[in-house]
Amino acid sequence: MTRSYSMDRRAYLRTVGVAGTTAAVAGCTGNGNGGGEGGVEVAFTIETGEQYGLGVREDAGDLQTALNDGLSAVEDDGTYDALIEEYFGSGEDAGDVTEGADGGTGAGTVVAGTAPGFAPFEFNEGGELVGFDVELTEAVLARTDYGFDGFETFEFDSLIPALRDGNIDLIAAAMTITDERDQQIDFSDPYYEANQAVLVASGSGFEPESRQDLEGQVVGAQSGTTGEDQVDGLIEDGIISEDDKRVYDNYELAVNDLESGNIDAVIIDVPVAENFAQR
Predict the structure, then answer these.
(1) Is the Cβ–Cβ distance between 38 and 20 less than 8 Å?
(2) N or C: fewer beta carbons within 10 Å in the chain?
(3) Nearest CA to 273 among 209, 212, 171, 194?
């Protein structure tokens, strides 16, 4: 699918969507042996410039068009900026993001799928599904002629099969637009841009500053993510072995293993890495 975006839109996404952290930090003891003092930190970033989109089935052109129109509407009326401020800025509540929207239900209703455990985009808080993607989806659909019938939750690598099988109607899960995914589903216009980060455990002396510094280390990522693609790239480049790759159903499990000293690093999207580092 061919996409054409204005330079203004691309520049805007870069301005609000790229968290450029390059801090050098301490991490876990090498080779997955022994934990640090608790907590994780961003060691360095990998510039990927990947863009997130809302995913729809290939036969859902009307919904795709509506989502693009809804994304433009939330940018134009300031709702997008308010959500950026809430989840990536001061934390000020964006309020009711559907207030004043003039959408309807004439086109039918849709069910969205997401994968919690990826704060600040989608996560559970007090038994409630919250996050940037959650509120953005509600705001976008409220400005279309589609009604919203809520979220279903999945492991990340089950989202595309669930969409293709008709169990959900769209994916809202910080999903990077890639050529491989684009052959299976269609995407909305991009709504966020990010890079990848390398997380290490705090307090045990492992301080990588580049991909090459990960040589011989045990590196993890969530299954089906662009973080896993980066781990595969390390293997292809001969930096780590296939045996040193660890894959998890979600990043909570990966970070827990990192904090416990079972692995040496985790590759994950920058905003989510920063969230883990700050908690």
Answers:
(1) no
(2) C
(3) 194
Q: For residues 141 and 110, is the Cβ–Cβ distance under 8 A?
A: yes
Residue range 120-164, pLDDT digits in tens: 999 999 999 999 999 999 999 999 999 999 999 999 999 999 999
Backbone angles phi, psi at 122, to 5 degrees: -155, 125
Domain boundary among 189, 223, 256: 189
CATH number reported for the structural domain that contains residue 160 in this entry: 3.40.190.10
Q: Are residues 58 and 128 in the same domain?
A: yes
d(CA 231, CA 240): 8
Helix/strand/coil for 29: coil
- State the DSSP code for 20: -
Q: How many CB atoms lie within 10 A of CB 21?
A: 18
| Domain enclosing residue 30, as ranges | 17-50+194-278
Give, in degrees to the nearest 5, the angle at Cα 199 between 224 and 41. Answer: 145
Read off the DSSP letter of residue 266: E
Tokens 């007090």 map to which residue?
126
Q: What angle do CA 161, 162, 166 make, to 5 degrees?
A: 115
Task: Quote the pTM value.
Answer: 0.83
Our count of domains for the chain comes to 2
